[in-house]
Design goal:
By secondary structure, the chain is α/β, with parallel strands linked by helices. The chain has one domain (2-117): 3-Layer(aba) Sandwich (Hypothetical Protein Ychn, Chain: A), CATH 3.40.1260. Helix content is 36%, strand content 19%. Strands 4-3-2-1-5 form a five-stranded parallel β-sheet. It starts with a strand and ends with a strand. This is DsrE/DsrF-like family protein.
Length: 118
């Protein structure tokens, strides 16, 4: 099976952080079971990629190790929005699009992924 986890959850809100952590945990486990899995960060969820939170960071590190982080939204990370583009890129993550080009989920749908929004 092919799964694309799209994480919008704001890590600054505890309940949202827990949702994102569970999504990463499930994605990692699905990958370990042989599934084709990608994780894409959108909106406020992109802050997870630059977080040093001890609860989420080990899961991000494991997702990196498993090779399942597809990237993050360049539109949302850009200066007019979250303004974290440079920090996300400095951490080594790929951004798709920019402040003039907001990518949509057809990116994954066209490749046959089942979309899971968190």
């Amino acid at each position: 099976m092919k799964y694309a986890f799209i994480i919008f959850s704001d890590p600054d809100i505890r309940s949202e952080l827990v949702k994102a952590a569970h999504a990463l945990h499930y994605a990692i486990n699905l990958k370990k079971k042989g599934n084709d899995v990608v994780v894409y960060f959108e909106g406020l969820g992109e802050k997870i990629l630059i977080s040093d939170n001890n609860y989420i960071k080990p899961l991000v590190d494991e997702a990196i190790k498993q090779g399942i982080i597809y990237g993050a939204c360049g539109y949302c990370a850009s200066p007019p929005h979250l303004n974290i583009r440079d920090k996300v890129v400095a951490k080594g993550f790929r951004l798709l699009g920019d402040e003039n080009d907001h990518k949509d989920l057809s990116l994954f749908i066209d490749e046959g992924y089942q979309i899971i929004l968190i």
